[in-house]
Structure formats: structure tokens, C-alpha cells
Design brief:
The chain is mainly alpha-helical. It folds into 2 domains: about 1-115; about 120-275, no CATH class. It is about 85% helix and about 0% strand.
Length: about 280
């Protein structure tokens, strides 16, 4: 157990050191935490009498996450792993492990205070864009699928509708932010909203450009929607310290509920008005 914790400490030392180079604004605090992790490693080494190497796979994993999803996400994920390590430390009666546990708690408090990344300031805008696209477009595509049943036309309708809605949503967000007296840049907020919306539009309409069968395309679109919900909900739950399951179920029920309702609306419209395309 001691060797396992020892390996974890040297691994986190390497990660914090490399992240400090990636984030000049918070480099001083990250280097301080890295120094503490190295101190933990040496104290555990004195107890075990053995050298251990850092986990290259974990180091690579957290660095890639930092580049793709931001340093904040990577650090928060490490923090979650530290919480599990703290639980393990707490089980032990070893005084050294108890001291290390207290240091890890301080790390958590420090990290919570240092996280200041631009994309997090506009996470509300991204949520707005994604939520709106998921709810509106899954519903629209479901209704169009049953009403039209021709994938090229459904794809074209979905893309045109989606991009128009993205521009409208971005413009509305810009005007709303501009009227508020906060520090958020209205243009950046609008861009985050619009980009999140368009990204979701492309993910949801892509199956209609591949599959000839409209119901197969709709099924793949629904799967894509669930994947988008899962990935983004996990991202938000990590950086905002929120519960993943609750947020996922809420977004899933709303999106799929609207899609199901729109599907039956499309059926009703097609039969009531006798429209055939």
C-alpha cells in the first residue's frame, strides 16, 4: 500500500510540474504543490526504502486532458483521485499517512482557489448552446424523419435550421450579456454559445448524410445525442463539482422527451394534412 501511494505521489509531482509550465498564471502555486508531492514521495521512500518511477501513462493522460479540455478539468480530475487516496490514507493508522492526508486536503483547498480559466467563465454559454441544440434539433429531426422520410432532405433541413438557430441564439446571448453589468465579454459569450450549438448540429445531422434509411439515421442521431450529453455532463460535473448522474438524467429526459413528442407531432401532421414528399 505504501509503495502504491509512493508511486502516486511521484506521478502527481511530475504532472503538477509539467502543468505549471503550461499555465504561467498559476505556475507558482502549481510548483508549490509539486514540491509538496515530491516531499511526500521522499518521506514514503524513507519508510519503504525503495525507489519507484512515476506512471508515464497517467502523466501523459492528464497532460493530454489539459490540452484538450483545459488545465482546470485535468486538475479537478486529479483532485477527485486525490479524494479517493485520502480515504485510503484515512483507513491507515500510520502517522505519516495521516500527515500526508492533511497536506492533500490543503492541496484541494489551494486548487479550488487558483482555478481561473477563461472557458470556465463562459461554461454557462456553452451549456446554453448545447442544451438548446440538443432539445430543439433532436426534436426537429425526429419530426422531420417521420414527416419526410428522405435522409438528404432531412439532413438539409436540419443543417439549415440548426445553423439559423445557432446564429439566432448567439445573437440573443450577445444582446443579453451586453445589457448585463458583469465582467463577461458579450462577443466571447456569443461565440461560445454559437460554436457549441453548431458543433451539436453537426454531430446530430451527420448520420443523415451517411445512412439512406431515415429511421437508422434517427437511431444513430439519438445515440450521438446521448454521447454528447454524457461527455459534456461529465465535463461540467468535474469542473463544477456537481453530481454527474443527476445532471445527465435531467438533460437526457428533456432531450429525448422533446424528440419523442416531436416524432408523434410529425406523424400527426403527416396524416392529418395528408402531406407526402
Amino acid at each position: 500500500m505504501l509503495l502504491k501511494f509512493q508511486k502516486n505521489e511521484i506521478t502527481e509531482y511530475v504532472v503538477y510540474t509539467k502543468l505549471a509550465k503550461m499555465d504561467p498564471n498559476n505556475s507558482e502555486i502549481l510548483r508549490k504543490i509539486a514540491s509538496d508531492e515530491l516531499d511526500h514521495y521522499h518521506r514514503l521512500k524513507n519508510k519503504t526504502g525503495r525507489e519507484v518511477k512515476p506512471s508515464g501513462l497517467k502523466v501523459y493522460f492528464y497532460l493530454v486532458l489539459a490540452k484538450l479540455l483545459g488545465i482546470t478539468f485535468s486538475l479537478k480530475l486529479m483532485e477527485r483521485n486525490e479524494d479517493r487516496a485520502q480515504m485510503a490514507y484515512g483507513i491507515s493508522n500510520d502517522e505519516l499517512l495521516k500527515e500526508i492526508m492533511e497536506d492533500e486536503k490543503e492541496h484541494e483547498k489551494t486548487l479550488l482557489g487558483l482555478l481561473n480559466e477563461e472557458r470556465l467563465e463562459y461554461i454557462g454559454s456553452m451549456v446554453l448552446g448545447l442544451n438548446d441544440a440538443l432539445v430543439e434539433l433532436t426534436g426537429a429531426l425526429a419530426g422531420l424523419t417521420l414527416a419526410i422520410q428522405k435522409t438528404p432532405i432531412v439532413a438539409l433541413s436540419g443543417i439549415i435550421t440548426g445553423i439559423a438557430a445557432a446564429l439566432s441564439m448567439a445573437a440573443s446571448d450577445y444582446l443579453a450579456r451586453k445589457s448585463e453589468s458583469n465582467e463577461k465579454n458579450p462577443l466571447k459569450s456569443a461565440l461560445y454559445t454559437g460554436i457549441a450549438y453548431i458543433f451539436t448540429v453537426l454531430i446530430l445531422t451527420f448520420p443523415y448524410l451517411i445512412f439512406a434509411n431515415p429511421f437508422v439515421a434517427l437511431t444513430v442521431t439519438a445515440i450521438n445525442a446521448v454521447l454528447v450529453i454524457s461527455v459534456f455532463t461529465f465535463f461540467v460535473s468535474v469542473v463544477k463539482n456537481q453530481e454527474f448522474k443527476k445532471n445527465f438524467l435531467e438533460m437526457f429526459i428533456i432531450s429525448m422527451g422533446v424528440a419523442a413528442a416531436s416524432f408523434f407531432i410529425g406523424l400527426f401532421v403527416k396524416r392529418f394534412f395528408h402531406i407526402e414528399i
